[in-house]
Structure formats: structure tokens, C-alpha cells
Amino acid sequence: MDSEEKVHLELIPGYLNDELVVKLHFKYNRDIIAIIKTLPGRRWNKESRYWYIYHRHFDLAKLIDALELFANVDYTALQAFDDGVYEGPLDNEALPSRTKSTPKPVAVSNPDSSIDLPKGYLEKLIQKRYSPNTIKTYVTYMKAFISEFRDRELTSITTQEIDDYILKLIRTKGISPSQQNQRINSIKFYYEKVLGLEKQYYNIERPRKARELPKVLSEEEVQAILKSIDNLKHKAIISTIYSAGLRRSELINLRKQDVFYDRKVIFIRGSKGKKDRNTILSDLLIILLKKYLDEYNPNYWLFEGVNRKQYSATSIAKILKRAAAKAGIEKRVTPHMLRHSFATHLLEHGLDIRYIQEILGHDSSETTEIYTHISKNAFEKIKSPLDIIFKKP
To answer: How far is CA 85 from CA 81, 116, 124, 333, in A?
Structure first.
């Protein structure tokens, strides 16, 4: 949907029954309402006919991320409220005055509420459409960085001091290479994106990323897992992940309208890197999904959990774990192994790696080529020296 076609949605803070809420103003739109119904803490005011969210549940980043396809979210009033200058009423109850000495955080909750983020840090993360998980991670690590240098102006901290800080975390807390990168990126984001300083300000050595081969299931193991699942919805979920090569988050975010049965295509919107793509729709999955839809009749999301909310990522992992155990598979099986298995099995059946790259949504062919290292076809062409020497006369 083009930005000109998006609905204008305004967020207004206020108090209702002595509790802080955020009111959602927007022109009627079924897609927006369906998404709002999935948000924690949302309520419908029957008398005044508007949606609102309790502040204790409110997550601005998650709201914007969920609504980005349908709405332009205006949160100016929240910022003004945060700065103590907003004077608009809600439900005929005037907002209590706020002062800059007692700001009320609006967006991302953090256990260390005594640490204030630098001005513009959170707003810039939201404007650049970072995912809710990334925002939460950056906020947590940036606050830890500020706490380390709590008696200093951030602009006075040198590159060497930042380098020493990261080294200290490695030595004292044993942070992983992945966490090291995330902490560095959270700091870089402030200096580079918020303050607009030059990139050479951050000459921080990065850890080499460990190259691990993906763990995969054999075709026989996938068959055994699917045969062990009796619940129709559970079978449809696991079959969809494997047959289309989906990430778990992509499965959860599938809407009913994203499955095109006539074209045999599943549309993946806003996946990793905020990219859209198409993937294949299996003939057998079509039959399975139609049975599932007839029996469960989901409302908006293709797979719904309790109270028609999005299905839980944890529940998917539990389904697969039980199914693998029932199938007699002793090794640990994760949802992402199904995606790796999908790619590996396609490669073993002769599909060009360029098509696999496109289906998986990889930016680089190098990412996809890792599956060539685990394909059984490569090893079938190579004979072990043990077999060779004992076959000699």
C-alpha cells in the first residue's frame, strides 16, 4: 500500500478511570482493526467508540511495526506529553500537568528505569523501522553503556574508551560474538545516526563470525515428524514451514489473504530486512490448508492462537519437539531446521541454487551456498579411502 493510501492514525495520551491510556484515532479500516485486536492491553470504548491501549501494555515500536502497511502513525502528542507540554483532554478528563523533571516513558519498557536514553535515540530507531526486538536490544545495551559512563558527557567518550568497555564485557561477562556486535551497533547508532558523526569515530574491532554449518533433517525424518502429528492445525503449521522454507516469524505473520491457491504462491511480507518475497505453495499443502480452514475458520491470521491472536512462536517449537520425540528422533529439532532442510532437499533434487536463494530471500548467493556443504549429493560422489583400499585386489 502506498503511503498516500495509508490511513492517518493519531495516538493521544490521557487518563481513563484513573489509569494512563493511549487512544487510537483513525478512520474506519478493517485491516487496522484486525491488527489492533492482536495487541496486548487493547480495549474498545463502547460509549465513545474508540480503541485504546493501557499504557502498561503500550509498545510504540511494536505498534508502528504492526501497522506499517496500513497506517501512518502520528505520535507527536505522545512526544509532547513526554516533554510535559501536551494539554489535550481525553474522555473529558484533563491530563495532569507534567514537568521535564518527571518525564513519563512512552515506548519501550526497560528494567533500568533510572537511565534516560539520549534525546532522539528511540525516535530514530522507530523512524528507521527497526524491528521491535532490535529496538529492545539496542535500548537495553545503550542504557548499559550510559550507566558505565554515567558521570560523563557521551560526546566526550573516546573510541579507545568504547573499545576498552567492550573488552571489559568480554573478559568479565563472557559476552558472545553476537552480543558484542549488537552492543557495538547500539553505540554506533547513537554517534552515527543520532548525532551524525563520521564513521571513522568507531574503529572498534569486530569479532569474526563463527561459521557453523546448518543442522538439517533427512527427508525420512521430516516424513516421520509429519506422520506423527494428529492435530490438523499443528500438522498444517509444521507442513507450511517445511514446504515453503519459512522462518518461524514468517509463519506467524502469514495472513489468510497471503496464500494464493490459484498461482500456488505464498506471499511473505516484510520479512528479514523488511523485504517482501514469494515462495512456493505445495500441492499437498493446498489440500491440507483447505481442510484446516474449513475446520478452524481463522479470522485474520492464517494461524491463530488463543482469542484469535497471532500464533505463539513458543507453541510452534513445542509442537515440533513433541512430534520429533514421538517420531523417535533423539536429536534436538528446531523450527529453523525445517527451513534448512527445505533448502538442502531442493538442492539435492537438482534445483538451481539461484532459485533457492530467491525463495529463501537471501541477499547474497554466498549465504545460500552453505547448503552445498551439507548436501548428501556432494558426499555420494566422494569415496572414503577406507572403502577404496579394501576394494583393491
So the answer is: 6, 19, 21, 53
pTM: 0.52
What pLDDT digit, counting tens, does each position of 215-259 carry?
Answer: 889 999 999 999 999 999 999 999 999 999 998 989 998 999 999
Asked whether the beta carbons of 151 and 120 are under 8 A apart, the reply is no
Catalytic, out of 129, 272, 277, 309: 272
If you ran DSSP here, which 8-state letter would residue 384 be given?
Answer: -
For the segment 69-119, what is each residue's pLDDT rounded down to a tens digit? 788 888 767 654 543 333 444 433 334 433 333 333 333 444 455 688 898
Identify the active-site residue in 136, 234, 339, 345. Answer: 339
- Whether 371 is catalytic is yes
Active site residue 339: yes
Give catalytic status of residue 362 as yes or no.
yes
| Active-site residue, from 247, 248, 340, 345 | 247
- Give yes or no: 336 in active site: yes
- 247 has catalytic annotation: yes
For residue 182, the one-letter residue type is Q
Q: Which domains does the chain have, with CATH numbers?
A: 1-99 (no CATH), 115-208 (1.10.150.130), 219-378 (1.10.443.10)
